[in-house]
Amino acid sequence: MKILMAASEVSPLAESGELGRSVSELARAMARAGHDVSVAVPFYRCIRENKAAGARKSKIRFSVDLGSSVLPCEIWEAPGPDGVKLLFIGRDEFFDRSGLYGADGRDYQDNAARFIFFAKCVTELSRLQLPDIVHAIGWQPALAAVFIRHQGLRISTIFSPASLSYQGNFWSHDFALTNLPGDYFSAGALEFYGSMNFLKAGIVFADAVVLPGERFLSGALTPLHGCGLENVLHQFSHKLEGIRPGMAPGSLPRLDTSAKPRAAARKALFPSLKPDSAARLFVADTASFSGPGLPTLLQALDRIPSPDFRLVLLGPVEPEHTTATLVAERRHAGRFLHFPEIDPAILDKVLVAADFACAPGPLNPDAAFFILAMHNGIVPVAEHCHGLEELVTDFDHSTGGGNGLVFHRHSVDALADALRRAIYLPEGERAILSSRARDIDLSWDACAARLTSLAKRLTGATAKSAA
């Protein structure tokens, strides 16, 4: 399959954060999956001056309309890793600058023009190269999906917002630079509360919108995480896909959890524990689950009188839960510890010592600690929520399937039952679940496989509609 990816960054040539690294890793994974992959990015000064980039001017030249102007564009090329081809969209007026998006702490005032031009050039490249898929990542190339649809190109489009927080929101007068008919500046298209919103445009006009995981997708449909776009996402929920990004090998630490360091870590956290103690150690991270989960967990402590239960709570608690947390620490002294600030040394001890990671409420979209815990073989105990299956499936004694323990009601009783189930889980079964948690596939290749499946569905639908 021929895929043209478009983004404002690509590692290591031009990056301001995680976006560039994600684009690079995804492109490489798609190429390893057997696709013909090109990545189009602006020809920034930092790329032009980087001799190691190996950029060479191609024979591809064209002009695009930008409002009342007709602007020529040059395309530069360079080989990327794993067979990826890099295409640099050159126009010094827009991209020969010291920063990618701004300088001296301020955005460039013509960012709308810069990235409308970029999206139009991506569209023209699509017309010339006829890829099966154009995959725009981030708000900067989002308008390519609009132009491809408007021009009737038989090319399927995928849009991946790099973040819902950064939307590419510009003054209404910048709309003239798109050269689109006036009815495109409407509530059903690019207009968003009087402004032109690139991110909204990508959501409305792309054939599929990929959000970073099912939990993120679920959260994005709520005011808490939707960043004002939750109603737009609801309207186009039929095209939303939750596909978790991969993680580069070695990006997550894997600690030594063998018997000796494990015993030492448990003793350091709970000095009263004897080396041969069968006590099960649970950890809960306040950043990994929603607020209502904490009072439920604190109340469940009273339902677990077993001496074989220990709990470590990591992270700050909201002011309304401070008193209850202090009371629990005193009431369950020797069984319950709270570390409001997560010191790296404490975190390492917990990751080595813990048996179970508990999410007493729905997992937050970015459950970074929960993923880290599973990567280190800590068995998850989690409340069922939309998209949880992406990480955790319930252990089934009859079939032997699953990699964790899941409870299905948000209540103290349901959580207490799940904790007791974990406490009395035979050691052999806990070891199996630990191994499965550790082996969860967080690779970019797994992400590429799901994107490939989506792309095949889209191109199949396009071929049928064309026929």
Structure description:
This protein folds into two domains: 2-248 and 445-466, Rossmann fold (3-Layer(aba) Sandwich); 259-441, Rossmann fold. 36% of the residues lie in helices and 21% in strands. The chain contains 16 helices and 20 strands. The strands form four sheets. A nine-stranded mixed β-sheet has the order 3-4-5-2-1-8-9-13-14, sandwiched between helices. Strands 17-16-15-18-19-20 form a six-stranded parallel β-sheet, with helices on both faces. It has a three-stranded antiparallel β-sheet with strand order 10-12-11. Helix 4 (111-129) packs across helix 5 (143-150) and helix 10 (293-301) crosses helix 14.
Quick tags:
467 residues; alpha/beta; Rossmann fold; nine-stranded mixed β-sheet; six-stranded parallel β-sheet; 16 helices; 20 strands
Compile the SSE list and pairings:
Elements: E1 2-7, H1 18-32, E2 36-42, H2 45-48, E3 56-66, E4 69-79, E5 85-90, H3 92-95, E6 102-103, E7 106-107, H4 111-129, E8 133-137, H5 143-150, E9 156-160, E10 169-170, E11 191-192, E12 195-197, H6 198-205, E13 208-211, H7 214-220, H8 230-235, E14 240-242, H9 259-269, E15 280-285, H10 293-301, E16 309-314, H11 319-331, E17 336-339, H12 344-353, E18 356-359, H13 368-375, E19 379-383, E20 405-407, H14 412-423, H15 427-438, H16 444-466
Parallel strand pairs: 1-2, 1-8, 2-5, 8-9, 9-13, 13-14, 15-16, 15-18, 16-17, 18-19, 19-20
Antiparallel strand pairs: 3-4, 4-5, 6-7, 10-12, 11-12
